[in-house]
Amino acid sequence: MTDPIRPTDPHTAEPDPQAPAPTPNPAPAKPTALEQMGGATGMVYTMLPVVAFVVANASLGLTAAIATAVGVGIALTVLRLVRKEPVQPALSGLFGVAVASFVAWKTGSAKGYFLLGIWTSLLFAGIFLVSVLVRRPLAGIVWGALNGTGTAWLKDKPSVRYYDIATLALTGVFAARFVVQQWLYEEDSTGWLAFARIAMGYPLLALALLVVVWAARRSGKRLRAQAGPTPPTTTP
To answer: Distance between terminal CA atoms of the chain?
Structure first.
């Protein structure tokens, strides 16, 4: 008689040497800088309160425009909650709309809605410029924080130059925003202020970010070359 076949204990059974090795689960991809800012929809959402404010102001007056802009901001935040999208960009946008509306109410003028953004652009331009002067270009520091690459590039002079160029590109964007929008503010051109706010917003920022990506790639290539080839892993 043959012995009965006993079930194999999976905890004590020896592994089959010819069986393929299990494939490790890939690590989840890190969100890109665009995704962390809310993605393409986040860009659109930031424009809608501005457009709503200008349209309402032209037809209904300042008070109605303020209420409309705040209402649109709240509605967009609720929409993100319902759709389970990142809420932080929406909350930041709602806070900005609330502050801008408060400034417009205090000044009693529709153009006051854009005053905070105008001076914020000047502040950012100054911060980016100072970071270049102290040899800590902010474009590289922010890029390393968002992508987890750190600040090892600070020890490589060519990498610092690459990020200097990228930071100066961002400085130019914010400086241009301030100069143009401040001039329109002095001219009481509320409609053109809204147009400049949108046209000089994400489109110009996207061009500057291309320079940042160029700097990051050049720097990353140099750092990988300095590190040398990665030694092959051996299976025990």
So the answer is: 42
- Condensed to tens digits (0 to 9), the pLDDT of residues 36-61 reads 555 556 566 777 888 888 888 888 88
- Same structural domain, 160 and 204: yes
Same domain, 201 and 134: yes
Rounded to 10 deg, the angle between the 88-107 and 62-82 helix axes is 170
Q: What confidence tens digit (pLDDT) does each residue in 66-106 have? A: 898 889 888 888 888 888 777 676 677 788 888 888 988 98
Q: What sign does the dihedral 216-218-221-224 (CA atoms) show?
A: negative
Domain span at residue 77 reads 37-108
- H helices present in the chain, as ranges: 33-36, 39-60, 62-82, 88-107, 115-133, 138-147, 157-186, 190-199, 202-227
The pTM score is 0.73
Q: Which long-range contacts (CB under 8 A, 24 or more apart) does 23-31 make?
A: 30/147, 30/148
Which long-range CB contacts under 8 A does 192-196 form with residues at least 24 apart?
A: 193/111, 193/114, 194/50, 194/51, 194/53, 194/54, 194/114
